[in-house]
Amino acid sequence: MAEIAPLRALRYTAKAGSLENLVCPPYDVLAPGDRETYLARSPYNSMHLEVPDSYPQAADLLNAWTEQGILKRDPAPAMFIYEQEFSVRGETLRNKLLLCRMRLSDFSENAVLPHENTLDAAKRDRFQLMQATGCNISPVYGLYEDPKRETRERIERLSMDTPRYTCTLDGVTHRLWVVNDRVVLGALCEDFRDRRIYIADGHHRYETALHFRNWRREQGLPGGEFILTGLADLHSAGLAVLPIHRLVHGLEHFDEAALLKQCKAYFQVYEMDTPPEYIETNMDALHRQAKKAFAYYSGGKTWHLLLLKDEALMDRLCPEQSPATRNLNVSLLHKVILEGMLGIGAESLAKQENLTYTRHFSEALASARSGESQCVFFVNPARVKEIREVADAGETMPQKSTWFYPKLLTGLAFHPLDE
């Protein structure tokens, strides 16, 4: 099963400046203009490594910062307790993770399991960055089950004192404790001997690391067998999964009236006269009731609620899939509406020719109102239990199906791959 280990991390020193000016989000969540914003915060901001002007430049910066004392390698192996404190729709949540390195394992070994499909372009980018720097710049986010609460209780005890680092970024407070006691580290490693890890976020990074490991083996080079990973208890009350909405655009002969008429064969279709700004509230209520539903909006004053008529529909349409995958809201949307009614197939999805994604409710509304999108489908998020069940079934969800919030910061610790 899973194998974790401490690492001799490369971390910022006091010479680099304030941590708020040094950390950044991972590459795959950046909105237009975000990169420039973080680059401007400090010449040492980790965005210079995460999304560099070129891959050789990232390698040069990493070496220069180490030589200048901006970054320093930990003298002894350690793990880190990493807490995120944040708010979701008015509720304050806290989630604690274990930041460590994890041995790479092929998915066929069932020690580390994915739940989402990936895109080749992103993996090529991350592979070239890893080749140039020989380093994990940002961590993978993983989930584990802890039915006896052993790890949770250890983590709570280890984070009772004042954290070594605290910073706030984009409304989220991040705290980090350093754990370097050998006995404690051994106990934490032992906790995971019989556990599977479910990838929550960072599928591209994980698959890239597998490719990099295999490439190093082919070259006869040591290292590259582990990946920097933040691990959270999948039953933690602090886990938050948010929706990712679907924006449809560029379809020839798009006919809204015909689409809604087709939808009536499978859904109760209600034209809602409440302002579109109330879509989120309505969708939240349906999510709590475990209803299969979508909100459809095309930019006008009204919107449509689509409520599934027959819960057994996907059983008939996709008998080859596991119940876990068939039961997903996003599977229903993709199979019945996007593919079946709008003709947006797997190839178009992979190229994002007629479908793009946003996690921002206001951005989706604006896209429909401006005419940039022909229509938008608002979806409810998958539950953590559903994500685990899909992974256990050996299947994957459509691209951009889950949004674990908040993302793990880039820059708290870098993982040199020579260990």
TrEMBL record:
<dbReference type="Pfam" id="PF06245">
    <property type="entry name" value="DUF1015"/>
</dbReference>
<dbReference type="InterPro" id="IPR008323">
    <property type="entry name" value="UCP033563"/>
</dbReference>
<protein>
    <submittedName>
        <fullName>DUF1015 domain-containing protein</fullName>
    </submittedName>
</protein>
